[in-house]
UniProtKB/TrEMBL annotation:
GO CC annotation terms, alphabetical: plasma membrane
SUPFAM superfamilies from the UniProt entry: MetI-like, P-loop containing nucleoside triphosphate hydrolases
Bilayer-crossing regions: 13-34, 77-103, 123-148
Subcellular localization: Cell inner membrane; Cell membrane
Record NCBIfam families: oligo_HPY
Name of the protein in question: Putative D,D-dipeptide transport ATP-binding protein DdpD
UniProt domain ABC transporter: residue ranges: 304-555
Species of provenance: Roseinatronobacter ekhonensis
Domain of life: Bacteria
Length: 621
């Protein structure tokens, strides 16, 4: 709740709306006990008094009634009717939408066609017709406004429900033997409540206006009862001679509708979980850089050189040190493995290279990334854009979510080619087919016309690799490319990457949590834990004689085919949260060799070709 309020007030306009509306609502609630004059007492001797005349703060109307009092009572009524109409329309509309969307088929058809019939009439005419049938009066105006708004809610909510009704957690609830009513109430409804609240908060203002409109036409509140619309209606004839009688209710309507709409926008933003961490608020084209101190010296050689890279996530007052002074070097044609448990900062390291970490909340706070001698941290977006995909390409874990579901894979490849190389469509197509052949997709010409969902997981990952190869990059950063695949397909993909590396002289930064995979592909390996490199060295050496206890235990987790029976070791405990890292070695709490000295001070990465960050390494380096 406090988070919600904080998010809401982060939007200044929404905060302003909340304050204005709050004041108005409090005044409206307190109206009966405020020292106001009776709202309906006429005194024709005091007609059309100006504000502040004769003891009337806002003056009087054409019957000499106190405008302030009528304004307060009218506001009270208008707010009540507007909120009630929104509530009725929201609840009934949502109920129709949920039922139609969940059951689908004939239920959906019948109810939605009924809703469509309501929608077929012009909005305000329908409201007028309903009041004409029911007779004038505030309650009937409320019913009319609610009814004409039901289709809006029903359509909206049905759409959302259809999306939810086929999700796995609904299937799971059905498998668990839950009845329809329970599934609707406990699984579907909680998911649509935010949508209903958002739709309501953005339409209440509109409904207050509609009710005022009906009252203005004399179809809503009946004399002498005041609401904002009827006050405007009665003041219409004196618009020129006594303008204050119209201005007073007019300003109130303006204030209410404006504050409701501002607040509604704020509520929508605060309720959307994707906006919460600021992820979608104002995504920047490159990661934000806040680097203190002098720039790093330029390295002499090397293809990609990462020096003391620090990437953090700033969420509220919390600082997540996802990447903490990481240094890596990648030479042409080399494959470097980056290994670590989930959450150790591998992906963030990889994404930082091309400034792809989402900002906010990501910030690069230190270090340098040199690509062929050029510092990429803080480089202008235009430069990064020409390098992304052309010099450094990425392969991600789940190709189904990185490929566009609605485009044929050939077209997606063509697009990737033409971003950097303005060749003709036919030429790009030929290259796309060639790429598909290069990644050993059989019958590539025909496959180019397939959609991503028509391919198997392994095929899709091959397409992902083909796309990374599209512009002949020097470096491929592969972020767990085989994690979603089964072991046989994984072996094929690894063999493919290995061949491509040989044929094209590619350098690969290969991210994985599996030491088995590292052994097959990588020349060197770096082990990450809690955002830091804890060990690095040639793969063979590290695999045969791991120096850091963490590396040793990670290697022990890999099952060996034909290795006989042995209990597979697991590492007890959980990786540390990077917003609150312990002092000393981050692994110490889980390490059975930890000494008191491991938990104090800074422990350095020592060694030359083989490096380790441990006071008591398993082997002497
Ligand atoms: P992995 O090694 O599994 O690829 P990541 O690099 O994705 O791990 O994440 C490293 C750390 O960064 C995680 O501990 C996570 O808590 C933190 N992190 C990642 N994204 C965000 C984010 N948007 N906001 C806050 N923390 C994040
Ligand atoms: Mg990752």
């Amino acid at each position: 709740m406090t988070l919600f309020l904080r998010l809401l007030f982060r939007n200044k306009l929404a905060g302003f709306g909340a304050v204005v509306l709050g004041v108005i609502v409090v005044l409206a609630v307190l109206t009966p006990i405020l020292p106001l004059q009776p709202p309906n007492e006429t005194n024709t001797a005091d007609r059309f008094l100006r504000p502040l005349q004769g003891g009337h703060l806002l003056g009087t109307d054409h019957l000499g009634r106190d405008l302030l009092s009528r304004l307060m009572w009218g506001t009270r009524l208008s707010l009540a009717v507007g909120f009630a109409a929104a509530l009725v329309a929201g609840l009934v509309g949502a109920a129709i939408g949920v039922v139609a969307g969940y059951f689908g088929g004939r239920t959906d058809n019948v109810t939605m066609r009924g809703v469509d019939m309501l929608m077929a009439f012009p909005y305000i005419l329908l409201a007028l017709a309903i009041v004409a049938v029911l007779g004038p009066g505030l309650l009937n105006a409320l019913i009319a406004v609610a009814v004409v708004n039901i289709p809006f809610f029903a359509r909206n909510i049905r759409g959302v429900t259809v999306g939810i009704a086929h999700r796995e957690f609904i299937d799971a609830a059905k498998l668990a033997g839950m009845g329809h009513t329970r599934i609707l109430l406990s699984e579907v409804v909680p998911n649509i409540v935010p949508v209903v609240v958002i739709a309501m908060s953005t339409t209440i203002g509109w409904m207050i206006l509609e009710t005022a409109g009906l009252s203005f036409l004399g179809l809503g509140s009946q004399p002498p009862q005041a609401d904002l619309g009827s006050m405007l209606g009665e003041a219409r004839s004196a618009l020129i001679t006594a303008p204050h009688t119209s201005v007073v209710p007019g300003v109130m309507i303006l204030l209410i509708v404006m504050s409701v709409n501002l607040l509604g926008d704020g509520i929508r933003d605060a309720l959307d979980p994707r906006l919460r961490s600021g992820a979608l608020a104002r995504p920047m084209a490159t990661t934000r850089v806040e680097r203190a101190g002098a720039p790093m010296p330029k390295p002499e050689d090397g293809l990609l050189q990462i020096d003391d890279l620090e990437t953090q996530f700033h969420v509220g007052t919390r600082v997540y040190k996802a990447v903490n002074k990481v240094s890596l070097a990648l030479n042409p044609g080399e494959c470097l493995g980056l290994v670590g448990e989930s959450g150790s900062g591998k992906s963030v390291t990889a994404l930082s290279v091309m400034g792809l970490v989402a900002s906010p909340p990501g910030v690069i706070t230190g270090g340098a990334v040199h690509l062929q001698g050029q510092d990429l941290i803080g480089a202008p977006y235009e430069l990064l854009r020409t390098l992304r995909g052309r010099k450094v390409a990425y392969i991600f874990q789940d190709p189904l979510s990185t490929l566009h579901p609605l485009y044929r894979i050939g077209d997606q490849l063509i697009e990737a080619i033409r971003v950097h190389d303005p060749v003709s469509h036919a030429q790009a197509h030929r290259r796309a087919v060639k790429l598909l052949e290069d990644v050993r997709i059989p019958n590539a010409g025909a496959r180019a016309r397939a959609y991503p969902h028509e391919l198997s997981g392994g095929m899709r990952q091959r397409v992902g690799i083909a796309m990374a190869l599209a512009n002949d990059p020097d470096i491929i950063i592969a972020d767990e490319p085989t994690t979603a695949l089964d072991v046989t397909v994984q072996a094929q993909i690894l063999a493919l990457l290995s061949d491509l590396r040989r044929d094209r002289g590619l350098a690969i930064l290969f991210i994985t949590h599996d030491f088995g995979v590292v052994g097959q592909l990588c020349d060197r390996v770096a082990v990450m834990y809690g955002g830091r490199i804890v060990e690095a060295g040639p793969t063979g050496d590290v695999l045969t004689a791991p120096a850091h206890p963490y590396t040793k235990r990670l290697i022990a987790c890999v099952p060996e085919l034909g290795g006989g029976q042995r209990a597979l070791a697991a590492i007890p405990g959980l990786p540390p949260a990077v917003d609150n890292l312990p002092e000393g070695c981050a692994f110490a709490p889980r390490c059975d060799k930890a000494q008191p000295s491991c938990k104090t001070g800074e422990i350095d990465l020592t060694g030359d070709t083989r490096k380790v960050r441990c006071l008591f390494p398993e082997v002497a380096l």
